[in-house]
Amino acid sequence: MLDFAAIDFETAVGYHACAVGIVTVRGGTIVDEYYTLIQPPDNYYHWGTIRVHGITPNDTECSPLFPSIFPEIKKRLTGKTVVAHNEAFDRNVLLRNAQHYGLSAADLQLSQMWECTCKIYRRKGYKPATLSACCDRNGIALQHHEALSDARGCAKLYLQHLQNC
């Protein structure tokens, strides 16, 4: 149970990814962190997403497209328990980007449902149960809406949950 991968995506518009952070945990210790910007289709952004995470078309104009980083995602997620703070969102970002580019997400051998720290901490009575609120309450440093920081915060929340079960 202390082996898993935590993931967070930032999106440009809809489910089109513009950044991903993945934190790999083995034996309760963070052993790998991966982060990259991703150029969304046509490098197009909705102004509202830029306001949330601060990533702009200028930041991703020379970044790889999703198919180029898919092998890195595959290497870090295949067959693992995957954790996200809003698992439905991040799972859909992964699946929809794979589908958009004709990649096989089935190759990842992932569960239909991932572990969701938002749901876990809601059940613990946290209100609000946002990633920033949960991290703040648990003394976890977070630069919210920066994909690697969010994935790291999620991993630490999940570890705390596992250690207190």
Provide a concise account of the structure shown.
This protein is an alpha/beta fold. It is built from seven helices and five strands.
Gyration radius, rounded: 15 Å
What is the end-to-end distance? 11 Å
Stretches where pLDDT falls below 50 for ≥5 residues? none
Can you tell me the overall shape?
globular
Strand order across the biggest sheet? Answer: 3-2-1-4-5
Q: What kind of sheet is the major sheet?
A: 5 strands, mixed
What is the ordering of alpha helices and beta strands?
Answer: EEEHHHEHEHHH
Overview of this protein structure:
The protein is α/β, with parallel strands linked by helices. The protein contains 7 helices and 5 strands, in the order βββαααβαβααα. It has a 5-stranded mixed sheet, with helices on both faces. The chain is globular, with a radius of gyration of 15 Å.
